[in-house]
Structure to design on (498 residues):
């Protein structure tokens, strides 16, 4: 039975367990029965409440429906901070201001310790979006700590009902000598695939020495099972992806994009800076199954124009996927044949075109939606307006179907989509931007030229403040959960609806 939009009884069992909603990294919640184009406006929609935490929130909030904690069944939103704290909050009750539980995972690292990198200030703790295994009731979290003058990245497995450590955790992330926890940074969201937790690493402000890393840990005992270095014979090649988690398909392959760094794969070497990489996970190892590197890799690397500014998005139901680099170039690749390297032009892939202006940090990965009339790919890149491209099933039309009227900050805020596959008029593209110090925007997904609402229209009631670059809002069961760098989670929804 399909219930009426806006009805409290229409709340469905939606969970957001990983960065951008799924391992394809589409960024879409397709089971939203409450929020719709007709009711997201200043008269009916606005700020409901906020929750104060002990640090900046760079990890996307996660959400689990219908958990029983303290003898009460409720929806729970999970928040992680750069002060290394994890919070579980009642996701719906404005009066339930206290955390259901809170755990601190160790002392954070002062930004001054990472060569005064201004990317994250004043402290660095939990930056990446955790991942939740609902079957075992476990949240996996990476926390960066400074302990007695030493630095660590530790993988924690937390009970989602209590916050208690599980499986003998935490364990320190360890690899060859080239991996050290001070120089390396875990910005991409964690990936859970076939009972293995994967964590990807880059650097702080390209502070050398560093490499791009992908580590795999058994989800049941936290034992390391796989390690991959993107530039094993060279340097750099970060996996940072503006916070996007590694993508994965049903065949068990993992897809990542790398930043500037050494490249010699075309001559038989192992280095894959500024590249798309497909990794096999068979036999408990991580091995390059295929790869693509743009023809102008040397120029991109020399000018710090990372191919891996964002992360890959896999198109459901096809063999294609897409990624956008700092130059604003959008690359469309076939997962069955990535293309390798051709030094003269990118004729070895499905498609490449300029989708956005080149900026210092494009920092925005597309959002995919199979709408009622078109398949859309939304891109709100740094320094550009929101664009909705049409995906035909085999390529992307290079002229947008529609564009928004609001320019994005150079370091873009994140975007997500909410819709219901059974109900017309429910598609909404949500995005964060720096206007007014920080704002949440809502656009009609079928026509992004139409802005439905933003938090500055009635700032006295709805102001967000201090947006988070790269991090996407979470939409679940009629509410929008928005992280900030002002040490609070802000929750929006229909006014007067409980």
């Amino acid at each position: 039975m399909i219930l009426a939009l806006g009805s409290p009884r229409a709340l469905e069992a939606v969970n957001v367990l990983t960065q951008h909603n799924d391992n394809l990294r589409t960024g879409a919640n397709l089971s939203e029965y409450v929020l719709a184009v007709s009711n997201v406006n200043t008269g009916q929609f606005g700020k409901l409440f906020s929750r104060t935490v002990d640090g900046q929130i760079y990890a996307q909030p996660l959400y689990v429906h219908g958990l029983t904690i303290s003898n009460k069944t409720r929806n729970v939103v999970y928040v992680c901070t750069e002060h290394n704290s994890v919070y579980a909050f009642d996701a719906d009750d404005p009066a339930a201001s206290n955390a259901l539980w809170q755990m601190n995972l160790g002392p954070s690292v002062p930004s001054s310790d990472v060569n005064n990198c201004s990317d994250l200030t004043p402290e660095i703790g939990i930056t990446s979006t955790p991942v939740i295994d609902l079957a075992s009731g476990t949240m996996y979290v990476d926390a960066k700590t400074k302990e007695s003058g030493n630095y660590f990245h530790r993988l924690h497995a937390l009970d989602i009902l209590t916050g208690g450590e599980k499986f003998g955790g935490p364990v320190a992330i360890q690899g060859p000598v080239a991996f050290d926890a001070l120089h390396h940074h875990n910005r991409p969201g964690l990936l859970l695939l076939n009972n293995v937790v994967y964590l990807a690493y880059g650097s702080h402000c390209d502070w050398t020495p560093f490499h791009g890393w992908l580590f795999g840990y058994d989800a049941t005992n936290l034992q390391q099972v796989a390690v991959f270095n993107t530039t094993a014979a060279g340097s750099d090649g970060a996996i940072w992806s503006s916070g996007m988690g590694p993508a994965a398909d049903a065949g068990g392959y993992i897809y990542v994009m790398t930043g500037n760094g050494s490249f010699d794969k075309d001559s038989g070497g192992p280095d894959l800076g500024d590249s798309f990489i497909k990794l096999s996970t068979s036999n408990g190892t991580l091995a390059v199954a295929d790869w693509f590197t743009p023809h102008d890799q040397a120029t991109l690397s020399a000018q710090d124009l990372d191919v891996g500014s964002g992360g890959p998005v896999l198109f459901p139901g096809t063999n294609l996927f897409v990624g956008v680099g700092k130059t604003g170039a959008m690359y469309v690749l076939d997962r069955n044949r990535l293309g390798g390297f051709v030094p003269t032009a990118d004729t070895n892939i499905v498609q490449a075109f300029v989708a956005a202006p080149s900026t210092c940090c494009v920092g925005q990965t597309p959002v995919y939606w199979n709408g009622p009339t078109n398949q859309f790919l939304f891109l709100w890149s740094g320094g550009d307006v929101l664009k909705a491209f049409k995906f035909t099933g085999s390529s992307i039309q290079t002229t947008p179907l529609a564009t928004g009227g609001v320019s994005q900050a150079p370091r873009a805020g994140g975007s997500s989509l909410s819709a219901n596959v059974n109900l017309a008029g429910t598609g909404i593209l949500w995005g964060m931007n720096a206007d007014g110090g920080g704002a949440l925007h809502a656009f009609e997904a079928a026509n992004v030229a139409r802005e439905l609402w933003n938090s500055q229209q009635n700032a006295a009631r709805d102001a967000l403040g201090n947006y988070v670059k790269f991090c996407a809002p979470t939409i679940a069961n009629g509410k929008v959960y928005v992280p900030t760098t002002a040490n609070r989670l802000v929750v929006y929804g229909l006014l007067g609806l409980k």
In short: Confidence is low (pLDDT under 50) at residues 1-11.
